Please model this.
Amino acid sequence: MTPKKTLAVWKFSSCDGCQLTLLDCEDELLTIAGQLEIAYFLEASRAKVQGPYDVSLVEGSITTPREAELIQEVRANSKALITIGACATAGGIQALRNFADVEEFTRIVYASPDYISTLATSTPISANVHVDYELNGCPISKQQLLEVISAYLNRRRPRVRAHSVCVECKRRGTVCVMVAHGTPCLGPVTHAGCGAICPAYNRGCYGCFGPMETPNPASLNVWTGLEDRDLVRIYRTFNANADGFRESSEAHQRQ
Model:
């Protein structure tokens, strides 16, 4: 009998939402259970199987000295390392610290800031170790996650499309909120994966899945009609530190 592939799931600085997406798969996981053993996943079980692991899913960004050490250990014990979610792929909402003074934050928030051990920046996993695949989203798409796991189990390239949210709007038959209502929307520069939920309810895309592979925010910014301070605000959310979003917010902050 061919031994099962081992899967480990790791948490760094994050909200656990992407790990919960994996737990939410439930019945879908049964289809690959014959090939897969969840060897390490503290969100789901206290059982621990020692590595090395065939696939490691990593949620969260690197924000503490201990995390910077631990990710090196995870990489060394993983044949394939896949980052899941905005925190792991772009630094997450906590990357807002990258645009400010962390020491000032800790002085304001904590009564005894000397007890806080943290880094000046929040960085994606790829800034610290080699990553084999990145899966965007805040949180990630359950369907995309299952596709990526299945792809690595079967040694093929994941079939995750790289188009923008605008394509998903077209497929749903959703009228463009920018054209019809003048609502600012990040759909043209945002990676698909959510199913264009917000535009379907007449709300602009918030960029939860981060920038698509070839975004052009400079062109979009002209069409939004927003002032510089508002452009900075819309790009500094879940994927504030992602290339494209970060560059656009910094450009308008300087103006």
The mean pLDDT is 93. Residues 165-254 form one domain.
